[in-house]
Amino acid sequence: MPGAGADRVIVVGAGIAGLTTAIALRREGVKAEVFERRDEPSRLLTGGGFMLWHNAILALRRIGLDGRVAAVGEPIRLHEFRSAGGRRLARWRIDPKTESCGAPAIALRRSALNTILMEEAGDGVHLGARLASFEQDDDGVTAYFEDGRSVRGDVLIGADGLRSTVRGALRRWHEAPPRHAGYTAWQAITRLPGEDLVPTGTFFNLWGRGLRFLYCRLNEHEVYWDAITSDRVRDRFDTVRSGKRAVLAEGYRDWPAPIPQVIESTDEDAILPIEIFDRPPGETWGHGRVTLVGDAAHPMTLNLSQGAGQGIESAVVLGRTLAAGADDPVRALREYEERRRARTADMVNTSWWIGAMGRPRSALVCGLRNAFMRATFDTFAFRQSYSLMLDTDF
């Protein structure tokens, strides 16, 4: 294709995938600038806790950030599955996998990762830049922002999340809305010292009837938790008459310790209910000199804890592929899309299937599910999960 190579890349969105893409490109000697609609740095350094599994740390190693990121997280050594009655369904030992692949799995604050990425991206991040539209031709792409400025680049990358402006413009604003998963995640971080309540290094994953509860320690003082409520249960929660903490405390009152204590210890304002969406795989990510990365390309539910990890992987692959094919950026973008399509589709589909297991309320169905987990999760499911996780392409 005629025109210049990829000497200047425009990245729209300063989330995890967008910042990682810019850092990966700059490590390869390609000028990359990030344009973010939020206008205050503090608004970028927010968010609750989450997991980065081994594959994400290995991807960060490609751009020299694995050590810094691992240092701000708490290593996960056990992943324990239990029923709402407290019965153990499975227990995954994580240390052997950490040793064999050479990278830990960690729990951390999202803001801690964002801080590191923002520092690395440095003055390449421009705030208060809300994308209005873009135009591309044989020689490059022009991005137009709502404040009147325009920027010319060789490639434009949409890293602007689930409801991406870049994605919408590529499709001329004609596509199906994101797919609702049928449940809500009530996420929070609470101050709760004490190893006797929540031991360090174990990620707890409890399954009930239309309810789930995930929690782990982030550090000696803080615990991250997620209450996942299916629509059939959540619709009974009256947050008009009662606060979020009160309705969750009622919903989980009969669950085993320390879940009631974890909820009770949490400030009302710290609880953030998030509706969970994804998009079914198969849609085209880009055209010409424009492509997508992260949630703009392959949003997924939270059940594999791979949303951020796959965004990081895609960013690293995109940066390396585009730098290697800088003389023909259009071909390089299509190569990146082809490399990432199957892996991210597997993650999206597997995560959706796991989430569907948590939606039923029937005692019979949930009993059968728990029996299935007891029979398969320590063996088959563990092997399959790690086979999928560590089948990396970077």
Automatic annotation (TrEMBL):
Keyword Hydrolase: no
Domain FAD-binding: 9-170, 283-350
Keywords assigned by UniProt, alphabetized: Monooxygenase, Oxidoreductase
Protein name: NAD(P)/FAD-dependent oxidoreductase
Pfam family, one: FAD_binding_3
InterPro entries: FAD-bd, FAD-dep_Monooxygenase_BioMet, FAD/NAD-bd_sf
